TrEMBL record:
Organism: Ancylobacter aquaticus
Enzyme Commission designation: 1.3.1.91
Upper classification of the organism: Bacteria, Pseudomonadati, Pseudomonadota, Alphaproteobacteria, Hyphomicrobiales
Protein's name according to its UniProt entry: tRNA-dihydrouridine(20/20a) synthase
Entry keyword set: Flavoprotein, FMN, NADP, Nucleotide-binding, Oxidoreductase, RNA-binding, tRNA processing, tRNA-binding
PANTHER family: FMN-LINKED OXIDOREDUCTASES SUPERFAMILY PROTEIN
Family matches, as Pfam families: Dus
Amino acid sequence: MSKNQSFRFAVAPMIDWTDRHCRAFHRVLSRRALLYTEMVTANAVIFGDRGRLIGYSPQEHPIAVQLGGSDPAALAKAAAICAEWGYGEVNLNVGCPSDRVQGGNFGACLMRDPSLVAACVAAMKAEVAIPITVKCRLGVDEQDPEVALDSLADAVLAAGADALIVHARKAWLEGLSPKENRDIPPLDYDRVHRLKARLPDVPVSLNGGIATLEAAQAQLAHVDGVMLGRAAYQQPELLLRVDSLFFGDADPHADAFAAVAAFEPYVAAHLAAGGRLHDITRHMLGLFTGRPGARAFRRHLATEGVKPEANLDVLRAAVDEVRRAEERRSLVA
Ligand SMILES: Cc1cc2nc3c(=O)[nH]c(=O)nc-3n(C[C@H](O)[C@H](O)[C@H](O)COP(=O)(O)O)c2cc1C
Protein backbone atom coordinates (compact mmCIF):
# COMPACT_ATOMS: atom_id res chain seq x y z
CA MET A 1 0.00 0.00 0.00
CA SER A 2 1.97 3.01 -1.17
CA LYS A 3 1.42 6.69 -0.70
CA ASN A 4 0.12 7.00 -4.24
CA GLN A 5 -2.85 4.78 -3.76
CA SER A 6 -6.34 5.72 -2.81
CA PHE A 7 -5.30 5.59 0.86
CA ARG A 8 -4.49 9.32 0.54
CA PHE A 9 -8.16 10.23 0.77
CA ALA A 10 -10.94 8.07 2.14
CA VAL A 11 -14.56 8.45 3.14
CA ALA A 12 -15.06 6.89 6.58
CA PRO A 13 -17.14 3.82 7.38
CA MET A 14 -20.44 5.06 8.81
CA ILE A 15 -23.28 2.80 9.90
CA ASP A 16 -26.58 3.60 8.23
CA TRP A 17 -24.85 6.22 6.07
CA THR A 18 -22.20 4.64 3.82
CA ASP A 19 -24.41 1.94 2.36
CA ARG A 20 -24.02 0.86 -1.25
CA HIS A 21 -26.20 3.66 -2.62
CA CYS A 22 -24.28 6.29 -0.72
CA ARG A 23 -21.03 4.85 -2.00
CA ALA A 24 -22.29 4.72 -5.58
CA PHE A 25 -23.18 8.40 -5.24
CA HIS A 26 -19.81 9.30 -3.74
CA ARG A 27 -18.10 7.40 -6.52
CA VAL A 28 -19.73 9.65 -9.10
CA LEU A 29 -18.21 12.62 -7.26
CA SER A 30 -14.70 11.14 -7.00
CA ARG A 31 -13.14 8.33 -9.00
CA ARG A 32 -10.22 7.99 -6.60
CA ALA A 33 -11.43 8.38 -3.01
CA LEU A 34 -11.30 5.11 -1.10
CA LEU A 35 -14.79 4.19 0.06
CA TYR A 36 -15.57 2.11 3.13
CA THR A 37 -18.64 0.04 3.86
CA GLU A 38 -20.61 0.41 7.05
CA MET A 39 -19.22 -1.85 9.76
CA VAL A 40 -20.51 -5.38 9.38
CA THR A 41 -19.83 -8.03 11.99
CA ALA A 42 -17.84 -11.11 11.11
CA ASN A 43 -20.71 -13.37 12.10
CA ALA A 44 -23.16 -11.43 9.93
CA VAL A 45 -20.88 -11.96 6.94
CA ILE A 46 -20.58 -15.67 7.74
CA PHE A 47 -24.20 -16.42 8.59
CA GLY A 48 -26.22 -13.53 7.17
CA ASP A 49 -27.67 -12.45 3.84
CA ARG A 50 -24.43 -11.58 2.06
CA GLY A 51 -26.04 -9.86 -0.87
CA ARG A 52 -27.71 -7.41 1.47
CA LEU A 53 -24.79 -7.00 3.85
CA ILE A 54 -21.75 -6.82 1.59
CA GLY A 55 -23.19 -6.56 -1.90
CA TYR A 56 -22.00 -3.62 -3.98
CA SER A 57 -21.78 -2.45 -7.57
CA PRO A 58 -18.52 -2.85 -9.50
CA GLN A 59 -18.24 0.89 -10.11
CA GLU A 60 -17.77 1.44 -6.35
CA HIS A 61 -14.11 0.36 -6.51
CA PRO A 62 -11.75 1.21 -4.88
CA ILE A 63 -13.72 -0.11 -1.94
CA ALA A 64 -12.84 -1.50 1.49
CA VAL A 65 -15.05 -3.50 3.83
CA GLN A 66 -14.99 -2.82 7.54
CA LEU A 67 -15.43 -5.80 9.84
CA GLY A 68 -16.34 -5.85 13.51
CA GLY A 69 -15.43 -8.75 15.74
CA SER A 70 -12.81 -10.17 18.07
CA ASP A 71 -12.82 -13.87 17.24
CA PRO A 72 -9.77 -14.50 15.06
CA ALA A 73 -11.26 -17.56 13.36
CA ALA A 74 -14.54 -15.83 12.56
CA LEU A 75 -12.76 -12.72 11.28
CA ALA A 76 -10.49 -14.84 9.09
CA LYS A 77 -13.49 -16.58 7.59
CA ALA A 78 -15.35 -13.31 7.06
CA ALA A 79 -12.26 -11.71 5.51
CA ALA A 80 -11.94 -14.61 3.09
CA ILE A 81 -15.56 -14.17 2.04
CA CYS A 82 -15.06 -10.43 1.54
CA ALA A 83 -11.92 -11.05 -0.52
CA GLU A 84 -13.90 -13.47 -2.68
CA TRP A 85 -16.53 -10.81 -3.15
CA GLY A 86 -13.84 -8.56 -4.59
CA TYR A 87 -13.15 -6.08 -1.84
CA GLY A 88 -9.74 -4.45 -2.08
CA GLU A 89 -9.08 -4.17 1.65
CA VAL A 90 -10.45 -5.46 4.94
CA ASN A 91 -10.46 -2.98 7.81
CA LEU A 92 -10.92 -4.03 11.41
CA ASN A 93 -12.99 -1.75 13.64
CA VAL A 94 -11.17 -0.94 16.88
CA GLY A 95 -12.89 2.38 17.38
CA CYS A 96 -16.63 2.03 17.64
CA PRO A 97 -17.85 2.76 21.18
CA SER A 98 -21.48 1.64 21.00
CA ASP A 99 -22.97 -0.50 23.78
CA ARG A 100 -24.00 -3.20 21.37
CA VAL A 101 -20.43 -3.43 20.21
CA GLN A 102 -19.01 -3.44 23.76
CA GLY A 103 -21.37 -6.26 24.66
CA GLY A 104 -19.83 -8.31 21.85
CA ASN A 105 -16.29 -7.35 22.99
CA PHE A 106 -15.26 -5.53 19.90
CA GLY A 107 -14.82 -2.02 18.63
CA ALA A 108 -13.05 0.55 20.80
CA CYS A 109 -12.87 -1.63 23.90
CA LEU A 110 -10.30 -3.73 22.02
CA MET A 111 -7.85 -0.87 22.55
CA ARG A 112 -7.36 -2.58 25.92
CA ASP A 113 -6.38 -5.88 24.35
CA PRO A 114 -3.67 -5.35 21.71
CA SER A 115 -2.66 -9.00 21.70
CA LEU A 116 -6.20 -10.12 20.84
CA VAL A 117 -6.40 -7.55 18.03
CA ALA A 118 -3.02 -8.78 16.80
CA ALA A 119 -4.33 -12.35 16.80
CA CYS A 120 -7.31 -11.18 14.72
CA VAL A 121 -5.03 -9.44 12.22
CA ALA A 122 -2.69 -12.43 12.00
CA ALA A 123 -5.62 -14.79 11.38
CA MET A 124 -6.97 -12.58 8.58
CA LYS A 125 -3.53 -12.11 7.03
CA ALA A 126 -3.08 -15.87 6.94
CA GLU A 127 -6.34 -16.21 5.03
CA VAL A 128 -6.30 -13.41 2.43
CA ALA A 129 -3.86 -11.59 0.16
CA ILE A 130 -5.60 -8.20 0.22
CA PRO A 131 -4.44 -5.53 2.71
CA ILE A 132 -5.67 -5.77 6.29
CA THR A 133 -5.91 -2.40 8.00
CA VAL A 134 -6.96 -1.29 11.47
CA LYS A 135 -9.05 1.74 12.41
CA CYS A 136 -8.56 2.70 16.03
CA ARG A 137 -8.77 5.50 18.60
CA LEU A 138 -6.00 7.07 20.69
CA GLY A 139 -7.12 4.98 23.64
CA VAL A 140 -10.17 4.46 25.84
CA ASP A 141 -11.22 5.75 29.23
CA GLU A 142 -8.29 6.05 31.63
CA GLN A 143 -5.69 4.76 29.16
CA ASP A 144 -2.67 6.98 28.48
CA PRO A 145 -2.78 7.66 24.70
CA GLU A 146 1.02 7.74 24.55
CA VAL A 147 1.11 4.12 25.66
CA ALA A 148 -2.21 2.78 24.36
CA LEU A 149 -1.81 3.86 20.74
CA ASP A 150 1.79 2.64 20.47
CA SER A 151 0.91 -0.69 22.07
CA LEU A 152 -1.98 -1.27 19.70
CA ALA A 153 -0.01 -0.12 16.66
CA ASP A 154 3.07 -2.20 17.46
CA ALA A 155 1.01 -5.32 18.13
CA VAL A 156 -1.03 -5.17 14.93
CA LEU A 157 1.96 -4.23 12.78
CA ALA A 158 3.92 -7.17 14.14
CA ALA A 159 0.94 -9.31 13.14
CA GLY A 160 1.12 -7.99 9.58
CA ALA A 161 -1.34 -5.07 9.47
CA ASP A 162 -0.78 -3.05 6.29
CA ALA A 163 -1.92 0.36 7.48
CA LEU A 164 -3.40 2.23 10.43
CA ILE A 165 -6.25 4.70 10.45
CA VAL A 166 -6.46 6.67 13.66
CA HIS A 167 -9.53 8.58 14.81
CA ALA A 168 -7.56 11.23 16.68
CA ARG A 169 -9.44 11.19 19.98
CA LYS A 170 -10.06 8.77 22.81
CA ALA A 171 -13.35 6.97 23.26
CA TRP A 172 -14.91 7.22 26.68
CA LEU A 173 -16.77 3.98 27.07
CA GLU A 174 -18.19 5.01 30.44
CA GLY A 175 -20.75 7.74 30.28
CA LEU A 176 -20.81 8.96 26.67
CA SER A 177 -23.11 7.92 23.84
CA PRO A 178 -21.57 6.91 20.50
CA LYS A 179 -22.56 10.30 19.09
CA GLU A 180 -21.00 12.19 22.01
CA ASN A 181 -17.90 10.04 21.55
CA ARG A 182 -17.44 11.60 18.11
CA ASP A 183 -17.36 15.14 19.48
CA ILE A 184 -16.59 15.40 23.19
CA PRO A 185 -13.25 13.66 23.73
CA PRO A 186 -10.76 16.27 22.46
CA LEU A 187 -8.97 15.82 19.16
CA ASP A 188 -5.21 15.38 19.38
CA TYR A 189 -3.73 15.43 15.88
CA ASP A 190 -0.21 15.77 17.27
CA ARG A 191 -0.50 12.34 18.81
CA VAL A 192 -1.18 10.84 15.38
CA HIS A 193 1.66 12.84 13.85
CA ARG A 194 4.02 11.44 16.49
CA LEU A 195 2.84 7.91 15.68
CA LYS A 196 3.63 8.49 12.01
CA ALA A 197 7.02 10.02 12.82
CA ARG A 198 7.86 6.90 14.84
CA LEU A 199 6.67 4.60 12.03
CA PRO A 200 7.98 6.18 8.83
CA ASP A 201 7.42 3.05 6.74
CA VAL A 202 3.85 2.39 7.83
CA PRO A 203 0.94 4.06 6.02
CA VAL A 204 -0.93 6.10 8.62
CA SER A 205 -4.19 7.91 7.96
CA LEU A 206 -5.69 10.54 10.23
CA ASN A 207 -9.41 10.80 10.89
CA GLY A 208 -11.61 13.03 13.01
CA GLY A 209 -12.96 16.55 12.77
CA ILE A 210 -11.57 17.38 9.33
CA ALA A 211 -14.10 19.80 7.89
CA THR A 212 -12.55 21.02 4.64
CA LEU A 213 -10.30 19.75 1.85
CA GLU A 214 -7.79 22.44 2.74
CA ALA A 215 -7.56 21.11 6.30
CA ALA A 216 -7.26 17.60 4.89
CA GLN A 217 -4.43 18.62 2.57
CA ALA A 218 -2.57 20.29 5.42
CA GLN A 219 -2.59 16.94 7.26
CA LEU A 220 -0.70 15.30 4.42
CA ALA A 221 2.42 17.14 5.58
CA HIS A 222 2.33 14.82 8.62
CA VAL A 223 0.54 11.60 7.61
CA ASP A 224 0.00 9.51 4.47
CA GLY A 225 -3.74 9.76 4.26
CA VAL A 226 -6.85 11.44 5.56
CA MET A 227 -10.27 9.98 6.19
CA LEU A 228 -13.33 12.22 6.26
CA GLY A 229 -16.64 11.09 7.72
CA ARG A 230 -19.32 13.62 8.49
CA ALA A 231 -18.00 16.41 6.28
CA ALA A 232 -17.99 14.14 3.23
CA TYR A 233 -21.47 12.84 3.97
CA GLN A 234 -23.05 16.14 4.91
CA GLN A 235 -21.40 18.17 2.14
CA PRO A 236 -20.71 15.62 -0.59
CA GLU A 237 -20.00 18.39 -3.08
CA LEU A 238 -16.52 18.65 -1.58
CA LEU A 239 -15.73 15.24 -3.05
CA LEU A 240 -15.89 16.82 -6.51
CA ARG A 241 -12.39 18.30 -6.04
CA VAL A 242 -10.71 15.31 -4.40
CA ASP A 243 -9.32 13.77 -7.59
CA SER A 244 -7.47 16.90 -8.60
CA LEU A 245 -6.36 18.03 -5.15
CA PHE A 246 -5.29 14.65 -3.77
CA PHE A 247 -4.42 12.57 -6.81
CA GLY A 248 -3.47 15.03 -9.53
CA ASP A 249 -6.20 13.67 -11.80
CA ALA A 250 -8.91 15.56 -13.64
CA ASP A 251 -12.06 15.95 -11.57
CA PRO A 252 -14.89 13.79 -12.92
CA HIS A 253 -17.50 16.53 -13.33
CA ALA A 254 -17.54 20.26 -13.71
CA ASP A 255 -20.15 20.74 -10.99
CA ALA A 256 -22.78 19.04 -8.88
CA PHE A 257 -25.42 19.41 -11.60
CA ALA A 258 -23.31 17.41 -14.02
CA ALA A 259 -22.61 14.83 -11.31
CA VAL A 260 -26.31 14.30 -10.62
CA ALA A 261 -26.96 13.90 -14.34
CA ALA A 262 -24.20 11.29 -14.51
CA PHE A 263 -25.76 9.49 -11.53
CA GLU A 264 -29.19 9.20 -13.17
CA PRO A 265 -28.58 5.80 -14.82
CA TYR A 266 -27.73 4.29 -11.43
CA VAL A 267 -30.89 5.72 -9.91
CA ALA A 268 -32.97 4.54 -12.88
CA ALA A 269 -31.58 1.01 -12.58
CA HIS A 270 -32.43 0.92 -8.87
CA LEU A 271 -35.99 2.07 -9.56
CA ALA A 272 -36.35 -0.43 -12.40
CA ALA A 273 -35.28 -3.19 -10.02
CA GLY A 274 -38.12 -2.22 -7.66
CA GLY A 275 -36.09 -0.02 -5.29
CA ARG A 276 -37.29 3.29 -3.91
CA LEU A 277 -35.94 6.69 -4.83
CA HIS A 278 -35.50 7.60 -1.17
CA ASP A 279 -33.06 4.69 -0.66
CA ILE A 280 -30.66 6.76 -2.74
CA THR A 281 -31.72 10.38 -2.37
CA ARG A 282 -31.54 10.25 1.44
CA HIS A 283 -27.77 10.33 0.93
CA MET A 284 -27.96 13.33 -1.39
CA LEU A 285 -29.70 15.82 0.89
CA GLY A 286 -26.47 17.68 1.68
CA LEU A 287 -25.42 18.03 -1.94
CA PHE A 288 -26.06 21.71 -2.53
CA THR A 289 -25.34 22.84 1.04
CA GLY A 290 -24.44 26.52 1.19
CA ARG A 291 -25.97 27.37 -2.17
CA PRO A 292 -29.17 29.22 -2.90
CA GLY A 293 -31.94 26.68 -3.33
CA ALA A 294 -30.31 24.09 -1.06
CA ARG A 295 -33.23 24.17 1.38
CA ALA A 296 -35.79 23.80 -1.41
CA PHE A 297 -33.76 20.88 -2.82
CA ARG A 298 -33.79 19.11 0.52
CA ARG A 299 -37.44 19.89 1.15
CA HIS A 300 -38.51 18.56 -2.21
CA LEU A 301 -36.62 15.30 -1.71
CA ALA A 302 -37.83 14.97 1.87
CA THR A 303 -41.49 15.43 0.94
CA GLU A 304 -41.79 14.05 -2.61
CA GLY A 305 -38.81 11.70 -2.69
CA VAL A 306 -40.15 9.50 0.11
CA LYS A 307 -43.37 8.63 -1.74
CA PRO A 308 -43.43 5.03 -2.95
CA GLU A 309 -44.05 6.09 -6.56
CA ALA A 310 -41.30 8.75 -6.57
CA ASN A 311 -39.20 8.54 -9.73
CA LEU A 312 -36.35 10.36 -11.44
CA ASP A 313 -38.59 13.35 -12.16
CA VAL A 314 -38.66 14.05 -8.42
CA LEU A 315 -34.87 14.21 -8.33
CA ARG A 316 -34.81 16.41 -11.43
CA ALA A 317 -37.42 18.75 -9.96
CA ALA A 318 -35.38 19.03 -6.76
CA VAL A 319 -32.28 19.94 -8.76
CA ASP A 320 -34.33 22.48 -10.73
CA GLU A 321 -35.08 24.24 -7.46
CA VAL A 322 -31.36 24.94 -7.13
CA ARG A 323 -30.99 25.96 -10.78
CA ARG A 324 -33.88 28.40 -10.48
CA ALA A 325 -32.56 29.85 -7.24
CA GLU A 326 -29.15 30.40 -8.86
CA GLU A 327 -30.75 32.05 -11.89
CA ARG A 328 -32.76 34.34 -9.64
CA ARG A 329 -29.62 35.31 -7.79
CA SER A 330 -27.69 36.03 -10.97
CA LEU A 331 -30.54 38.27 -12.19
CA VAL A 332 -30.37 40.25 -8.96
CA ALA A 333 -26.57 40.45 -8.96
C1 LIG B 1 -23.49 7.97 11.48
C2 LIG B 1 -22.10 7.48 11.80
C3 LIG B 1 -21.83 6.14 11.78
C4 LIG B 1 -20.53 5.66 12.03
N1 LIG B 1 -20.27 4.31 11.92
C5 LIG B 1 -18.98 3.88 12.01
C6 LIG B 1 -18.63 2.53 11.69
O1 LIG B 1 -19.45 1.72 11.28
N2 LIG B 1 -17.33 2.15 11.84
C7 LIG B 1 -16.36 3.03 12.26
O2 LIG B 1 -15.18 2.66 12.35
N3 LIG B 1 -16.67 4.31 12.55
C8 LIG B 1 -17.94 4.75 12.41
N4 LIG B 1 -18.22 6.08 12.61
C9 LIG B 1 -17.11 7.00 12.94
C10 LIG B 1 -16.49 7.56 11.64
O3 LIG B 1 -15.95 6.55 10.83
C11 LIG B 1 -15.39 8.58 11.99
O4 LIG B 1 -14.37 7.90 12.69
C12 LIG B 1 -15.91 9.71 12.88
O5 LIG B 1 -17.15 10.21 12.40
C13 LIG B 1 -14.88 10.86 12.94
O6 LIG B 1 -14.63 11.38 11.64
P1 LIG B 1 -15.33 12.75 11.14
O7 LIG B 1 -15.09 13.78 12.21
O8 LIG B 1 -14.65 13.07 9.85
O9 LIG B 1 -16.79 12.46 10.98
C14 LIG B 1 -19.51 6.57 12.35
C15 LIG B 1 -19.78 7.94 12.37
C16 LIG B 1 -21.06 8.41 12.08
C17 LIG B 1 -21.32 9.90 12.07
